[in-house]
Amino acid sequence: QDGIVALQVDDPLNGVVVIRSLSTGVPPANQIVEILHVIPCDNLGNPQNSFLKGSTAHFNVTIRNNDNEIRRVLITINVYDSENRPFQWVATEKSVAAGSTSSSIRSVPILDTASVGDAWVYASAFTEWPSQGGTAYCPEKLATFKILGSGPNGTQTPGSSGNPQGTYNATFKLSSDAEIGNYTIYA
Questions:
Q1: DSSP states of 45-95 as a string?
Q2: pTM: predicted TM-score of the whole model, two decimal places
Q3: N or C, which end of the chain is more exposed by having fewer CB within 10 Å?
């Protein structure tokens, strides 16, 4: 209770499917590293709220190191489509100087198999991969955007609403071409 769970789900081939940090209640007030925001954007960092299927979405993640020593941070971005299916993730590691803020823009392809409509991006900050014993520095940050069809005007259909922030709910659907077998969950 009142903690943060680092969650990693690997498929039968040891490929990451989900990488998130979920709150189990009220997270600790003084976080060593915190995510200030995640913003869907273009490749220059200008906010953008929709992307066409088959295009590339960009996400600007800003973190702050509140500690008085340098911290190595594994930053992950997990993208879900309107059917609550995780379809892409990216990760980057960086060292953040004591008392400083750092931003980075990461690119994620919007697959042709992604469902159109409302979509979600979750940014997390870890000490290490959960499968390697890593823990979450802070709760994840959430941003929404839309996935549009790949036609000239991008058709759009209504989507479902995302899970409210602050709940420990890791429900997701696998794509129809997902690997058959046992999935491993690290928490």
A1: S-B--EEETTSEEEEEEEEEE-SSS-EEEEEEEEEE-TTS-EEEEEEEEEE
A2: 0.81
A3: N
Cα separation, 121 vs 52, in Å, equals 15
pLDDT digits (tens, 9 = 90+) for 50-75: 999 999 999 999 999 999 999 999 99
DSSP letter at 136? B
Q: Cα separations (Å) of 77 from 60, 74, 131?
A: 10, 10, 17
100-116 confidence digits (pLDDT tens): 999 999 999 999 999 99
- On whether the CB atoms of residues 92 and 104 are closer than 8 A, the answer is yes
pLDDT band for position 172 (cuts 50, 70, 90):
confident
130: DSSP letter: G
Q: Token digits for 26?
A: 């009220």
DSSP symbol at 139: -
